[in-house]
Amino acid sequence: MPIEANEVGADALAIKITRDLLDNADGTVGFEAYLREAMVRGKTRFEFRLHGLKYLNSTEIGAMLRAAVLVRGGGGRIALLELNKKIHDVLIVAKVDTLFEIRSSSHADG
User: Fold this and answer.
1) Domain range spanning residue 73?
2) Residue 98 forms part of a structural domain
3) Could you point out which of 13, 53, 79, 101 has its C-alpha 20 to 30 Å from the C-alpha of 71?
4) Which CATH number is 81's domain given?
């Protein structure tokens, strides 16, 4: 499955996050490779758009953590957008919310 991404600035990409990117080995490896390539091209800011995801399981949280370590290790940062309250709460309970900038004023899709 191709990764849906749009440039949102000279050094920034908005990426639509899907189950296929986070919850299977091939998708996760491809996603991490995509992030590495984007960083080589000078992208340091990433917006992960989670609209459409209803929850994150432990595998998906692990994939998000690996992405955060990769991007932060390269001097970049990740903002999470369009996440619902359940996902936000899971990130807080897992104590990983501080690894991301969370921009979700309305917690769409409750």
Assistant:
1) 5-103
2) yes
3) 53
4) 3.30.750.24
Identity of the residue numbered 26: D
Give the pLDDT means over successive 10-residue stretches in the chain (110 positions).
89 93 82 95 97 90 93 96 94 92 62
The CB density around residue 95, as the number of other CB atoms within 10 Å, is 8
When divided into structural domains, the chain yields a total of: 1
The answer to whether 26 and 83 are in contact (CB under 8 A) is no
Q: Using the structure block, give the residue that is written with the tokens 């490896």.
A: 29
- Establish if 39 belongs to a structural domain: yes
Nearest to 80 by CA among 97, 63, 61: 97
Residue 33 falls inside a structural domain: yes
pLDDT at 109 (0 to 100): 47
Report the distance separating Cα 36 and Cα 40, nearest Å.
6
CB atoms within 10 A of CB 87: 23
What backbone phi and psi angles, to 5 degrees, belong to 49? -95, 115
As a whole number of angstroms, the distance between CA 110 and CA 98 comes to: 21
